[in-house]
Amino acid sequence: MDREIFEAYLHDRSRIGAAAAGAFTGAAGGAACGDLSRISLVLGDGRVESVSFDAEGCGATRAATAAVAEMVDGGTVLAAARIGTDEVDDALGGLTPAKRHAAQLAADALHRALAQAAASSEILAPEDSPGERVLVAMSGGVDSAVAALLERERGADVLGVTLKLWADPQTDGAKACCSPEAVLGARSLCLSLGIPHLTLDLEEEFRRRVVNEFVSGYAAGSTPNPCIACNGEVRIAAMVDLAGRLGASHLVTGHYARIVEDDSGPLLAAASDENKDQSYMLAALPPAMLERLRFPLTELTKPEVREIAARHELAVAKKPESQDLCFLSGQGKADFLRRHGGLREREGDLLDGSGRAIGRHRGHHNFTVGQRRGIRVSAEEPLYVLAKDGVANTVTVGPRSELIARAVRLRNATLHRDGNEVDAVRLRYRSHPVPAMLTATGTGHHAELQVRLGEDFAGISPGQTAVLLRGEAIVGYGTIAG
Questions:
Q1: Which of 177, 178, 190, 230 does the annotation list as catalytic?
Q2: 33 is catalytic
Q3: Beta sheet of 384-389, edge-to-edge order
Q4: Percent of all residues in the chain with a pLDDT value above 70, rounded to a whole number
Q5: In the list 10, 117, 140, 400, which could disulfide-bond 63, CB 3.0-4.6 Å?
């Protein structure tokens, strides 16, 4: 540690003070460690017009906070977004390992202030990049990391953003793509690549529009698909807006999907790797938003993506994928519904197709239409869940033949192209398209749609999303009503 530099920052009081009106403030530390770092930024035209700070605790924390304040004062927001623990440590001449936490606290405080700015309507950077500037959605996983690498190799000016959507002590933050731990991991990855990093905190909106709808759907007896609503209504739109305020032409994501064009504009279509295709989960994106999106992994397989990451010696090259919903990582669905929705075990009747009680269950929310496991009733042939009633807390079961359907009713459907162009439908994430036709024409919103299937389909589940296709292109979607 350079003692002279350290002492200068330790006694620097030039920017100590309360936050100015309109400032964006971030704080890190507190009672648990006894050290606290606070940074407040006043922004204008993509620059830090003024900065104030205060700090409590050890001298290292006070010095590190003062160093960050000096580093960002008068500079650009994007330059501030490049500052991490290593940069603060270097500014102090190198802290001892025991004091390095001070640099981390000061960097965290800075990035929390920048996160406040990202969630505002503030213009954070002018459109002054000599080349094309893009914002990459960084989850902390290998797909988004490789997407960023490919964009940089293409010559784009790359910025990174990570969404903070969910913080729950019961969630395994190391596995979730939107947890506080994921934010720190993505920031570290971005800064190691020389990419500015911002955090966008959408936890309140995510809870209201995604988690609450998920819980209320299960309470009502359906099986909702929260990822489609999250992508279509919360995540992507917020990041596209941020991209515009950063002077970026496109939002880039690590999704496996493709954008195709017809005479009316862009549409989503499946990626080359059928095993990883995520176009179904993006089906609620309006075509106008597709003009601002880019999917660099469109033509790649997962092994190819991992090979690119390994070639660039990225630590995430072998990072395993999460198989759960982000807010369920590390915990069971039943426990989550109990804690966040009050859906506890409650005995109810298992009914056969005629409405006769043939057994008991411990809560309708533990079952999904088409499910076989957990019924625990002896019968001449295997029984499957045919229907659920959330109000009566009943589960109707029967043989697989009674699951077969040749029609499905949708509610709250949206058509991007005329309904008579629909020739297939996907009724589950991993299911193959089923030949289909609609009984309605026209585009836009439809309170209800009838879909006729060209072949039998077993296990149509209310609450899931039906994705409407014309050839390979997604031309609409709706929620399965029955």
A1: 230
A2: no
A3: 357-361, 348-351, 394-398, 384-389
A4: 95
A5: 10
